[in-house]
Design brief:
alpha+beta; Rossmann fold; 2 domains; 20 strands; 6 helices; Tumour Suppressor Smad4; six-stranded parallel beta sheet; about 15% helix; disordered C terminus; six-stranded antiparallel beta sheet
Length: about 325
């Protein structure tokens, strides 16, 4: 049976062309059939003239063993739109800056392909959220989903929005703000982190609610349980409408009176993992955190389960 890899690339980086050609060459040499998800990269740089199969939408996704993503976190979130609701994992090769969702770096592309060829990877499920938007006068809610976060933001730069926040069917507080981030644990290192929220380890089954520039005394980041439903309403007294952004990619306009409900989704997004480094190592590596002076365990002390000593950084060669 033919093994297939679908490649999703960053559409605005010329260096993505070099990475793409190298990836195709390495994958075909390893016996994979390769498809390229068609986007602006193929139009801007002429990729596809070498006989690479170009597909659109969700073509070839279900037939693929892995979707290989060449880019940063934004490209991985775009690729997640293709694999959401399937069993196909994403494997990110970082061409961006932080690349928190990526598993490998550009310089390790050849080693990454060899690991794929040997099926030497594990698959990790990341929880997502379902989003329901109730619009005034609408019979049925508009539905969406997010891997990182659903964010209610102000539509007018010069004005705040007035919102009411609700948890599990009960009102919590109403305030003016620039927005409210409703995040998964995976998204805790993204928009929620920039807004002042805590970093949550990805195996914590929880959602975050993080106000953005709230004009209120009690408007602190909250962490709620997996069965909770979080809602944000655009109040009628709000001087500005709002907008809902899911993963910074999918947008719904929110007039006064709109209500956004966010709850845990039963559909995860699957990520292919090459290493077993703990999440702490990924934080240190991706954020370049200073750890000088750390002495580690004292003689005779035992390491916690899963915290084996490592000499390589997350996403690097083993």
């Amino acid at each position: 049976m033919t093994r297939r890899v679908l490649i999703v690339t960053h559409g605005g980086r010329p260096e993505a062309v070099t990475a793409l050609r190298e990836a195709v060459r390495e994958l075909e040499a390893a016996g994979f059939a390769v498809s390229l998800h068609d986007d602006e990269l193929t139009e801007q740089f002429g990729v596809g003239e070498d006989g690479i199969e170009r597909v659109r939408d969700r073509e070839r996704v279900d037939e693929s063993e892995v979707v290989l993503v060449l880019g940063g976190d934004g490209t991985i979130l775009r690729a997640a739109e293709l694999t959401h609701g399937t069993d196909v994992p994403l494997l990110g090769v970082n061409l961006g800056h932080v690349g928190f969702l990526a598993e490998s770096e550009r310089e390790n592309l050849g080693a990454t392909v060899r690991r794929l060829a040997d099926a030497d990877y594990t698959v990790e499920e990341r929880r997502t959220v379902d989003v329901a938007v109730h619009l005034p006068g609408g019979a049925e809610p508009v539905r969406g989903w997010a891997l990182n976060e659903a964010t209610v933001e102000k539509a007018s730069r010069e004005r705040m929005i007035e919102v009411a926040v609700e948890v599990d069917g009960r009102p919590l507080e109403a305030f003016g703000c620039d927005g409210v981030v409703m995040s998964t644990a995976t998204g805790s290192t993204a928009h929620a982190f920039s807004a002042g929220g805590p970093v949550v380890w990805p195996d914590v089954d929880a959602m975050l609610l993080v106000p953005i520039s709230a004009h209120a005394l009690f408007a602190r980041p909250l962490v709620v349980g997996p069965s909770s439903v979080v809602a944000v309403e655009i109040l009628g007294r709000s001087s500005s409408p709002g907008v809902l952004m899911c993963d910074g990619r999918r947008q719904i306009d929110l007039p006064q009176g709109a209500r956004v409900e966010v709850r845990r989704s039963p559909e995860p997004v699957r990520l292919a993992r090459l290493g077993t480094a703990p999440f702490t190592d990924r934080l240190v590596s991706k954020f370049s955190l200073p750890v000088d002076g750390w002495r580690g365990l004292r003689p005779g002390a035992s390491r916690p389960p899963g915290a084996e000593a490592r000499t390589t950084s997350p996403g690097g060669d083993e």
